[in-house]
Design goal:
Structural class: alpha/beta
Radius of gyration: 18 Å
Helix content: 40-55%
Shape: globular
Number of strands: 7
CATH topology of the largest domain: TIM Barrel
Largest sheet: 7 strands, mixed
Strand content: 15-25%
CATH architecture of the largest domain: Alpha-Beta Barrel
Order of helices and strands: EHEHEEHHHHHEHEHE
Number of helices: 9
């Protein structure tokens, strides 16, 4: 009897805000029984060559991916690009522009922290010393390491979160543009963690409608540590709007025990799997 494939189509390495190198991530996924893995780092393709090499040795099917930041009604939305072509030069240039936006934002945040009496230049240097694109998670860790806050959650609550004194919004490209980038590279645009956004039910329907109108075709039905009621709600959204469904742990760090790789992820039977079109 052929073993059932285990899919995890949303993971992060230290090329963005994950803790593990792409090689270590693939090895951990293999040990967890994952057979089809997508590396979807935030706004960077840098980890994909290493992950591809490691996957070959680990007998894992690697899905090349990326998680791109978009703007919708002044809110940051994340779109997974699955089965993208990492060699697409146009996509490479566009993703580089996203990384530059992140770098510019980090400098602006650290400037604000400096005005609040914190060592902004030192914090920026600490973030820049880390591999991969700079993220607020890196900065939160630097604030903890410097003894300025006790936990990373405190960093967001006190300084970095929405409405906090060091918060700097990023002017991400519109949602429709991000969807087009993914489609132009041969990829599948998949709306990440749709129940996680702070939206009313009407606004969420508007987001899904706009995503579909822009050419989005998939929805992350099972994501991270979401409970059964979240999965059910996302499955209903997928069926209503005609999206295929994806599943992913949104794995970042082995220390985050609530969303391990693989995580017994299972797509509800009522949803057409996004991987079906790829014969998986």
């Amino acid at each position: 009897m052929t073993a059932e494939r285990v899919f995890d189509l949303h993971t992060h390495s230290n090329c963005s805000d994950g803790a593990l190198s792409p090689t270590a991530l693939v090895a951990r996924a293999a040990a967890a029984g994952v057979s089809v893995l997508a590396l979807t780092d935030h706004d960077t393709l840098a980890g994909l060559p290493e992950a591809h090499a490691a996957a070959g040795s680990a007998a894992i099917s690697l899905v090349p991916g990326v998680e791109l930041s978009a703007s919708w009604r002044a809110q940051s939305i994340h779109v997974l690009g699955l089965w993208i072509d990492p060699a697409c030069r146009e996509l490479q240039d566009r993703v580089s522009s996203q990384a530059q936006r992140r770098s510019d934002r980090m400098r602006a945040i650290c400037t604000r922290l400096g005005k609040l009496g914190l060592p902004g230049d030192e914090l920026l240097a600490a973030v820049q010393a880390q591999p991969g694109v700079p993220t607020r998670a890196h900065l939160a860790a630097a604030l903890v390491a410097g003894g300025h806050v006790e936990r990373t959650d405190d960093a967001f609550r006190k300084y970095l979160g929405k409405g906090r004194p060091a918060q700097v919004p990023t002017d991400w490209p519109p949602l429709a543009a991000i969807v087009a980038w993914i489609r132009d590279s041969g990829g599948v645009p998949c709306l990440a963690h749709p129940v996680r956004y702070a939206l009313s039910s009407g606004a969420r329907r508007g987001l899904l409608s706009d995503f579909a109108a822009a050419g989005g075709t998939a929805l992350e039905v099972v994501s991270g540590a979401n409970g059964a009621h979240h999965v059910e709600a996302a499955a209903m959204m997928a069926v209503k709007f005609g999206f295929t469904g994806s599943i992913g742990s949104d794995f970042h760090d082995p220390a985050h025990t609530w969303n391990p790789l693989g995580r017994s992820l299972k797509l509800p039977d009522c949803v057409v799997p996004v991987w079906r079109a790829y014969g998986l």
